[in-house]
Amino acid sequence: MIKAIFYKEWIKTRWYILLALLVSLGFSAYAMLRISRVCSLKGAEHLWVVMMQRDAIFVELLQYVPLILGLVFALVQFVPEIHHRSFKLTLHLPMRATSALASMLSFGMLMMVLVCVPALMLMWAYLQSVLAPELYWHVLLSALPWYLAGMAAYLLTVWVALEPTWGRRLLNVVLGVLLLRIYFLAPAPEAYNDFLPLLAIITLCYSILSVLSLTRFRDGRQD
Amino acid sequence: MFKTSKIFFCLLLLFMMVWQLPACYNFFVAKSVDTPFTLYSGIAGEFASLKLDEDKKMHYRDASGKEYTEEQFDSILPTFYYRQLVTDGRFPDSIHGVAVTPRQVQMSNFNMRISPLDLNKPRLGIQQMLESMSGRVDLELPDDAFRITSEGMEFVEMETNTIDRDKSARFTQMMKQKGFQFPATYLSGNPTDRKEYDEGYVMLDATKKLFHVKQTVGRPYVRAIALPEDMTPKHLFITEFPSRKWLCFLTDTDGYLWVVERDSYAVRRTEIPSFIPEEQSMLIIGNMFDWTVKVNRGTEECYYAISAQDYTLIDSMAYQTPRYTIPGLSFTSTKDKFVKPRIVR
Questions:
Q1: Closest chain A CA to residue B1
Q2: Nearest to B5 among A145, A192, A211 (CB)
Q3: Rounded CA gap, B239 and B80, in Å?
Q4: Is A118 within 8 Å of A24 (Cβ atoms)?
Q5: Structural domain span for residue B274
Q6: Of A79, B93, B121, B296, which is the most exposed, with the fewest CB atoms less than 10 Å away?
Q7: Rounded-to-integer distance, Cα B94 and Cα B238, Å
Q8: Model pLDDT, residue B326
């Protein structure tokens, strides 16, 4: 049954996943192209010096890309089904509703990993050719919270989308925005290093919130 | 599962309250605590300060409350206001019986700021070492960077991203020869070309021994600096002041501030009471006779006057800086550049 749900989700979202992958890779490639341009115009030395002395990481334009991709992915995956009332059918499949939701969320998270990891791999592959390990890990570790924010945005948007009442949905939006702010507080590159493992666990915990919305949806709560 | 999600949601609401409510309160009630700009005046023999009152009128006073005019204030702080005194033709021939010129005053003046933000931040692990004796007036940034591993010192050529094995071996060999045990546990340097001269780095090795390492004509210069027996260094601050009198300042595990003199490598303790650089900020405004040292201890702004000759305490005073904020959960702090949950008071 899980396989069937995965297949259903794939059919539903495959074009968006392809687009998200292209956007994610495109932005990473553009950031690397800009670094390559700095190297060809001013030399790799300039790149190193600016990174060492001015805390520059050259990939700031990627900051909100995973967040937007995660948010839109949740909307693409859940909103049409809820809007066409076909989500209720999913809940009537011969499996527990929470298991069905867990399968859908697992698919979503897996696809988010599929969209984000190639972008990080692309950066890693290029940066290691021009930078010392200290410097390219500096860039990648600084960017990692943004990719976690993408996962969080996905899970929190599902929580908001499944919520059946507008009053509670508004509260969820406010809470979600505040929670997402945590991923963008960095006063310096690599500021999240110590907090990253805990932040990753907290991010995964956001998936539990959807059960709350699901239960309220099943109970037929309305405004 | 529903119960778990409900509990998690309640925890989330609680977390939001502990995070956002104190933050909102502190945002709206926050007001700056203005303390007067204060310096030690060797002429007056006490601290002197200037403060703008509510009518935007500047008041110049010493610690005993005596009021000064602006011109009198310049005269009791001749090393700080030497440019004004020179412009007015009032610069004295001697201060405290010592003949001085404006140039001497300019060269011996220094400012040093130590902030927890500069210490509590992610470190790259790779930095540059300038050539300290290039023969040119202006310093130039090198074309390599170095890291210190448990094996030795490694120079990487930036353009090609490859290790310069010869240079790495030269430095590693020299450092080992001088008793340096890898890896380094602390480094302090100022790798910029916007300074008058370069002293390279001061470093603590794996056994907390202090070393001075710099590059002179492409060769390593390594010097072990003898520390007093009962002292364990904790933080190092390279100085590179125009006077070239000191190599670095350092703090020890007991919170004392020490100075390392540049020519003799003598390590001498100042009489500034406990200073914790990870939590407190320090500003030193020094001249050839004395230093005014401001230590921000949270609810107290302490001022110390230190003799520039023997580093003894001449005078001290403090301003109370009450806080109007309430404690709460925060992810950032004014004392570090990390993001992590912590209770901020």
A1: A211
A2: A211
A3: 19
A4: yes
A5: 112-284
A6: B93
A7: 31
A8: 86
Q: Could you tell me where the DSSP H helices lie in chain A?
A: 2-42, 44-54, 65-83, 87-91, 97-130, 133-162, 166-181, 196-205, 209-218
Helix (H, G, I), strand (E, B) or coil at B79: coil
List of chain A residues whose C-beta atoms are within 8 Å of the C-beta of residue B161: 44, 129-132
List the single residue in B124, B159, B331 with the smallest CB-CB distance to A185.
Answer: B331
- Residues of B within 8 A of A209 (CB-CB) are 5, 8-9, 12
Alpha carbon of residue A7 to chain centroid: 21
| Residue A106 touches partner B, C-beta closer than 8 Å | no
Contact A187 B337 (CB under 8 A): yes
* B219-225 and B210-216 beta bridge pairing: antiparallel
Q: Which residues of A touch B130 (CB under 8 A)?
A: none
Residue B343 lies in a domain: no
The distance of A189 to chain B (nearest Cα, Å) reads 8
- Per the domain annotation, does B31 fall within a domain? no
Tens digit of each residue's pLDDT (9 = 90 or more) over A153-202 = 999 999 999 998 999 999 999 999 999 999 999 878 999 999 999 999 99
At residue B302's C-alpha, the angle toward residues B298 and B306, to 5°, is 145
Beta bridge partners of B307: B290
In this prediction, does ipTM exceed 0.90?
no
Q: Is residue B9 part of a domain?
A: no
Mean pLDDT, rounded, for A2-10: 87
The band of A70, judged by pLDDT with boundaries at 50, 70 and 90, is very high
What percent of the residues of chain B are helix, what percent strand, and what percent coil, each to the nearest 5?
20, 35, 45
Closest residue in A to B127 (Cα) is: A52
The helix (run of H) or strand (run of E) holding residue B46 is strand B46-52
Low-confidence residues of chain B, pLDDT below 50? Answer: none
Contact state of A182 with B8 under an 8 Å Cβ cutoff: no
Alpha helices for chain B (secondary structure H): 2-29, 70-76, 82-88, 102-108, 116-119, 165-177
Residue B120 lies in a domain: yes
> Which pLDDT value is given to residue B26?
87
pLDDT tens figures, B179-201: 999 999 999 999 998 899 999 99
Q: Which residues lie closer than 8 Å to A114 by C-beta, 6 or more apart?
A: A17, A21
pLDDT at B3: 87
Residues in chain B with CB shorter than 8 Å from the CB of A135 are: 124, 126
Number of domains in chain B: 1
Give me the residue from A175, A186, A210 closest to B339, CB to CB.
Answer: A186
On the question of pLDDT at A98 being above 90, the answer is: no
Q: What is the pLDDT of residues A119-142, one digit of tens each?
A: 999 999 999 999 999 999 999 999
**Is A219 within 8 Å of chain B by CB?**
no
Q: What is the pLDDT of residue B281?
A: 96
For tokens 């023999």, the residue is B45
pLDDT value at residue B138? 86
Whether the bond between B183 and the residue before it is cis, its omega within 30 degrees of 0, is: yes
- A130 to chain B, any CB pair closer than 8 A? The answer is yes
Nearest to A185 among B124, B126, B332 (CB): B332
